[in-house]
Backbone:
């Protein structure tokens, strides 16, 4: 009787352990693959449905009861000006808050409170911001269902995103850079304005782009403050009633006629064009940034 | 004399610094004012609502029909709808997201990671109204082929698609948690002869448990607050049911329904959206705070 290899059982055991590992690693890969398949399916589905409806009149016509005449004119105007107003309010406030918290704020209870508060605000459902806007801007300040009320609401919504991204960018500024400026006699504000902000700008910009791409696709808070779905005239000013791209899409999806759903798909192609372009720009900026430093 | 002249720009720079600091401080209070504003608006309108409708009518009734002639204000059908869709979404997002995180942090080469992460970010960056369209016009017809009794609006379709919407959040937060486990722990496991998968399941996941838990809770909170997918694909029928093939209504979808409808802004029916909003805010707030503290604990352990 030959002597059994004392390690044979171990080798068999080890092989089984590795096999199990490989199996589960394959499963993990499948999870990623599935996410990608869903993404691709979604894109193909939208393009197949919407591409034939992506015609010039989609951009130049107002909404209509007849799908072949309906367009996104008022929605595009609304989205464009909403973006401009939101950016004008949210970007300066966001960067200023980030500078204070990252560069000036003493380690006090109030500072910690502001920080917990911001991280919590980032997790508040967007529709709650809509209720805030309805109570505060639409009714409280008497702005009505106006573009300005919408922009104010949207600014509060994206503020935490801009603050968090700007803080991270400021935190990544090398100490040596600051110390060199301080050694030359610069005040804290001079260090921030002339050096830290310059260095952090690409990172801050990335955050701003991501925040704006979020704002262009947000629907729920604007529905809650009372943005309309049917507007058949050009936007006249910040106090005018308005609609935006995702609300128009939502409206078309909700209609029973098949043609309106295809029109919605065409609108989605336009919307995705905007958001994906902005996302790509943000990713590109960040990757360039990583290589340079 | 000359020294005074030379000091002037420096003095001005210092007073500018004090001034800027003050302005920045005041601006940074806007975020606190936002929270106060949310609580104030919700509280004021909710208190008005509860001066007309008793707490018992809100919490002890099982029917939600504030827009009908026979008005009933039981919140549970809306909570039921919200939780039903959220659980379906979590059943998709948690296992897939965690597996994706493990793959990205422990298996993928830097090159593969370099293009996997942007793809997940694209998935996260798609507006939710687009996911709603996808659920209603693609997933639902497909579900109806498998389950002929599925209604056009149903919880399953909305939940499945919502799962893929929050998957990137779970994946990216879990990956951060796993990646922040000190390298020495991995080395110790490998030196004891553990395979890569054993290292993941028996060392890294237990070590990153708090961070992963925080990610899961945050994903749950996100699912509860998600609006457009359910407003488009899950229906407008508040009911107490566990049947995922039926039309239901979530809290968020109800707020959208009233906002779009012709309910007069001064009517009691309109004030229901603030009471529902308050309930939603409290649910997500509690989950966000738990997640925040759980995530902070792990960071302290490894400092």
Residues:
């Amino acid at each position: 009787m030959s002597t059994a290899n004392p390690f044979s059982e171990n080798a068999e055991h080890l092989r089984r352990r590795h096999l199990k590992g490989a199996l589960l690693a394959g499963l993990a890969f499948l999870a990623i693959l599935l996410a990608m398949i869903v993404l691709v399916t979604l894109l193909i589905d939208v393009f197949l449905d919407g591409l034939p409806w992506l015609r010039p009149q989609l951009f130049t016509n107002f909404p209509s009861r007849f799908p072949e005449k309906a367009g996104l004119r008022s929605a595009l105007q609304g989205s464009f000006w909403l973006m401009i107003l939101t950016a004008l309010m949210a970007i300066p406030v966001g960067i200023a808050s980030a500078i204070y918290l990252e560069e000036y704020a003493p380690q006090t209870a109030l500072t910690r409170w502001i920080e917990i508060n911001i991280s919590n605000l980032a997790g508040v459902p967007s529709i709650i911001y809509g209720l805030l806007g309805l109570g505060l801007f639409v009714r409280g300040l008497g702005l009505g269902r106006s573009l300005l009320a919408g922009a104010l609401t949207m600014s509060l919504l994206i503020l935490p995103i801009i603050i968090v991204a700007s803080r991270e960018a400021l935190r990544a500024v090398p100490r040596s850079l600051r110390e060199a400026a301080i050694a030359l006699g610069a005040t804290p504000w001079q260090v921030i304005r002339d050096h830290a902000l310059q260095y952090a700008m690409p990172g801050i910009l990335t955050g701003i782009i991501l925040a704006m791409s979020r704002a262009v696709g947000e629907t729920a808070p604007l529905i809650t403050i009372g943005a309309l779905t049917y507007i058949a005239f050009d936007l006249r000013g910040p106090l005018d009633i308005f609609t935006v791209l995702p609300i128009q899409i939502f409206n078309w999806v909700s209609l029973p006629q098949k043609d309106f759903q295809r029109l919605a798909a065409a609108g989605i192609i336009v919307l995705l064009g905007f958001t994906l372009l902005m996302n790509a720009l943000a990713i590109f900026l960040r990757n360039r940034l990583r290589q340079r430093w | 004399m000359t020294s005074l002249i030379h000091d002037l720009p420096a003095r001005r720079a210092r007073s500018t610094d004090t001034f800027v600091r003050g302005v920045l401080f005041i601006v940074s209070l806007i975020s606190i004012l936002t929270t106060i504003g949310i609580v104030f608006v919700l509280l004021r309108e909710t208190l008005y609502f509860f001066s007309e409708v008793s707490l018992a009518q809100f919490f002890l009734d099982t029917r939600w029909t504030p827009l009908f002639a026979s008005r009933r204000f039981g919140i549970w059908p809306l909570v039921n709808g919200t939780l039903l869709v959220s659980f379906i979404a979590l059943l998709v997002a948690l296992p897939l997201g965690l597996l994706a995180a493990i793959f990205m942090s422990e298996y993928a080469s830097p090159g593969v990671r370099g293009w996997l992460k942007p793809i997940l970010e694209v998935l996260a960056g798609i507006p939710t109204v687009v996911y709603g369209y996808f659920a209603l016009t693609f997933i639902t017809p497909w579900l109806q082929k498998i389950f002929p009794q599925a209604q056009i609006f149903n919880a399953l379709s909305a939940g499945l698609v919502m799962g893929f919407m929050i998957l990137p959040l779970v994946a990216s937060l879990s990956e951060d948690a796993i990646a922040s486990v000190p390298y020495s722990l991995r080395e110790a496991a490998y030196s004891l002869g553990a395979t890569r998968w054993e290292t993941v399941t028996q060392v890294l996941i237990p070590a990153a448990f708090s961070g992963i838990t925080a990610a899961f809770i945050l994903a749950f909170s996100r699912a509860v607050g998600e609006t457009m997918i359910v407003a488009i694909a899950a229906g407008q029928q508040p009911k107490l049911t566990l049947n995922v093939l039926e039309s239901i209504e979530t809290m968020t979808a109800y707020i959208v329904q009233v906002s779009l409808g012709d309910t007069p802004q001064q009517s009691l029916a309109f004030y229901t959206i603030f009471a529902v909003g308050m309930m939603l805010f409290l649910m997500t707030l509690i989950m966000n705070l738990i997640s925040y503290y759980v995530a902070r604990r792990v960071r302290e352990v490894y400092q």
